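Progress narrative, work stream C.
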Amino acid sequence: MPDTPPQTYGSASAGDAYLPSNGNGGYLAEHYDLDLDYRVATNQLRGIATITGLASMRLDRFSLDFDGLSVDRVTVDGARPRKVAQSSRKLTITVATPIEAGQRFEVTVRYRGAPHPLHSIWGEVGWEELDDGVLVAGQPTGAASWFPCNDHPSNKASFRIRVACEDPYTVIANGNLISRSSRSGRTAWTFVVAEPMATYLASVLIGRYRRTDVAAAPVAHRIFFPANLAHEVGLDFARLGEMIALFGELFGPYPFDAYSVVVTDDELEIPIEAHGLAVFGRNHVGGLHGSDRLIAHELAHQWFGNSLTLAVWKDIWLHEGFACYAEWLWAEASGGRTADESAAWHRARLDALPRDIVVGDPGPHDMFDDRVYKRGALALHALRRELGDAAFFGALRAYTLARRHGSVSTSDFIEFFTVHTGSGEVHRLVDRWLFRTALPKL
C-alpha cells in the first residue's frame, strides 16, 4: 500500500477549543508591518499588511484571519499566489511555489473598506467608530476586523503600525512613536512594537486629544484626553506614578518602555487594556478618584496579559485574577481596605452566587464572568497567606522576569511557584480555588 503523502495545508485553526475558528496552523507570524490610510469622516480604510511568517511544515496552502474588508491583491514573496479565497472569517492562500518547513516567507495583502466591529458571543469587538474618531478593542477576536493576522494569543509578534489620517486628529497606537510627518492636510504616525505582542492587544485610537507627559520615572507615562476633561483627568490620574512604582516593587520591573492612558470623549461600557496602553471613557473620570480600582486593574494587565500572555483562552484567570488582585493591593497600599479585608468581603459575596463555574476552565461563554476575576484573585491571596509575603512576591517577581514577553499557562504557573518556593501546597491551593465548584474557606 503506498504511503499517504504528508499534509501540506496549514490548519484554519490554532486548535483552541474556546475559539475553534481563530488562529491558523502551519506557520507562525513573526512580524506585522501595517500601513494604513484612514478617512475619519467617511470611515474608509485602505491598508497594506506585510506579514513575515515562519513555516512549521511544508505549505501549499495557509490561511489568515480577516473579516469585513475587501482584498485587492495578495503576494507571497513578491509573487502572485495560485489562488486566493476569502470567506466570512478567513483569507486562504494557495501558493504558486511550496513553502518549505523552516522557511521564512513574506505575504503582502492590500485591502480596503469600511471597518466595523465583529459580532461575537461577548458582544462586538474590533475596530469601532466613536462620535469623532476611532477605538480598537480587539479582545478576544477583534484583530481581524482591521488587519489580516494569525489571531491567537499563542502567536505573539513584533509590529510596525503606520496610520495616516486628517490633520486635526491625534493617532495613538502600541509601542514607540518613531516618526510623524504631515502633507496636504494629512499626518502619518508610525509606531514600532519591538517586543512580541498578541494580535488582540494591537490597538489604534484616533481622536481630538490633548497630551500630557506626566512623568519620566519610574516609567515614562502620559495621558491623552479631550480638552474639556483636563481638570478631572488631572485629579483622577494624579497617583498613577505611585501605582506604577508599587506594582514595579511587587511584580517586578514594568515590562515596556512607556505607558499611555487614553480617555475618550465617548462613554465606554468598561475600560480597555492594550499593549502599553489603557483606554477609559469620559464616564470613568469625575475628579473624585472614583475609578482608582479600574486604573489599577488596567495597569496590572501590562504585566499579566500583555507581557505574560495566556497560551490558551481557558487560562484567562492568569490575566483577570492577577489584575483583580492588583486592585486589592493598591487599596491596601493607599490607605483603603487591606487585602485580607477585600478577600473576605469578596468571598462573602461569592458565597451568595451560584457555584456552577470552574474558574480554571470556565468555558468560552463564561470567560469574562466576574467569578473568574474574584476567585482568581482569592486563589492568589490564599497562596500569599500560605507562603508569606517574602516568598510569594519573590516568586512573583521571578515569574514575571522568567516569562517576560512570553506565553504562560496554569500548569506552568503552578510548577514555577512550586519549584521557586519549595512548597508542596501550591498545587493543592490552586486546585481548590480554580478547579472545584465548592467555595473554599480563607
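Work stream C, second folded protein:
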Amino acid sequence: MEGGTTQVLIVGAGAAGLTLGIDLARRGVSFRLVEKLPEPFHGSRGKGIQPRSQEIFEDLGVLDRLVAIGGEYPPQREYRADGSYEESFVVEPVAPTPDEPYHIPLLVPQFLTERVLRERLAELGGAVEYGVELLGFEQDADGVTARLATAEGEETVRARLLVGTDGGRSFVRRSLVIAFPGRTLAVRAVVADVTLTGVGRDAWHRWNEGDMARQMSLCPLPGTAMFQVQAPVPLEGDVDVSAEGLTRMIQERTGRSDIVVQSVSWGSAYSMNARLADRYRNGRIFLAGDAAHTHPPTGGQGLNTSVQDAYNLGWKIAAVLGGAPPDLLDTYEEERRPVAAQMLGLATRLLDAAKEGIIRRGREVHQLDIGYPGSRLAVEAPERSGGILAGDRAPDASLTGAAGQPVRLFQLLTGPHWTLVGYDTARDAGPAAAKGVRVVRIGADGDLRDDAGHFAAAYGLKRGSWMLIRPDGYVGAIVEAGEMDALDSYRNDVGLGARAVRRQ
C-alpha cells in the first residue's frame, strides 16, 4: 500500500521525537511521527528537566504547563538505622538572575512531560501514529523510501529525510550498522511507579546510601499520587515488581513494616549503560536522543540531552529543506556528539559518587554552560575577547521597550526565527529586515533600552556591534560596524537569503 510522501519521517515518539515534531510543525515542515508501541509510554523514567531544557520548553510554548503539573525536587531525607533522619537538598536552591531565569531543575514524571508535548504537537496540527512500526528503509540521492507496518497492513512512504529517535535499541541505528560503543556499568536497578502508604510526600525518602545491596529510594512524583521506587538489584536473576514483591523489598531494606505498596503502574529492572553512536548521520538519515546515546540516570542528563538534540536538528532540517546549503546538516553531529560524550562522562562520574552515598548536584547538571564555540557556525572577530562569544548560549536580559513596558530578551527570541541584535547602533545603520530574521536594536536610539544594564553585563558587546542569535538560542555571529560583509556571508551560509540590502 502506498503511504504517500512527506518531508521528514520521525521514528519514535519519546521526548526527542516529540520535540522534533513540534519544532518542524511550527516551521511548516511536513512530517510523520510514528511509534511502534500501541499507546504512549506510561512510566516516570526520566523525571528531571534541567534549566537549559526549561529555556527550550519556554520557546516551544510548554514550560508553564510543565511547571503547573510538576514541582521542585523535595528535600532528601536520609534515614539512619535508629529511625532518625537528616534532611538536605538534592539541588541547592539558587535564586534566578536576569541572564539565567531558571536555576532549579524541575521534577516531572516522563509520561506527563510527553503528554504535554503531545498536546502542544496537536495544537500545531501534528499527531503521533501509534502502532506503526518501521520494517525497513532504503535511501538514494533524493530521499528515503520506508516500509511501515500499520493496522491496515504494510505501507510504503517516501520522505526527504528520516530521523531515528527510537531509543537505545534503535532499529534505525542497527539497520545502518552504526557502532554503539561504550560499556555496561555493572549496575542494575529496579524503577517502578507505585502508590503506597507509610511515608509522606514532603521528602525524597532514602535508606542505606552507599550500600548497593540495601539502598532504597522513594521519591514522590508531582502531578500524581504515586512514588517512584528506585533500588539497585543483583546483576542477574528475576526481580519481582508486583505490589507484593516491591513491598517485601522495601520492608527488608528499610526495616519498616508500615510501608506497603498498594498498586504498581509501571515497573522495570534494567542494566545501566553509557554508550555513544559512532555517527549521528548516514546520508539522509539521522539519529537523535537515546538512539544516539544512552546514559545512566544519575544527574538527569538523558532526557535533557535528547530534547536538545532535537532542538538543534529541527531548525537545520527546516533550513535545508527551504534551500539552505545541505552541509548545514553536517553541523548537527559536529555540535551535538561532543556534548553527548561530555554528558556521558558526567553521568558516569555521578553514578560512581552515588555508589558512595553522594547524591548532591550542582551547576554541572544544569546544561546552561553547554555551547558550540568550535562550530563552523560560530563566527566573530579573531581579536575579540571578553563577554559573550560566538557559540555560547544567549543569556536572557530584562529590557524596557521604547513604549515603557518591560520586555525579556527571551520573549524576543521566542519562535522559529533568527534574531539580529544591534547594540547601541545608529538608527539607520545595519541591514534591513529579511524573511526569517527579527531585527532588534538596543540602546538610546533603539526600540529597546537597557535601563538596568542587564544586557550589557551579560553580553559585554562593544557599542555599534551586531549579533546574530540562532533559532536554538545560541550566538551565531558577532561583528562590529566595519565587518558587515562577514555578517552577510554568514547569512548566506545558513540559508537566510541573498545578501541583505543595507539601509541607506
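The CA atoms of residues 58 and 64 lie 7 Å apart. No further action is required on this item.
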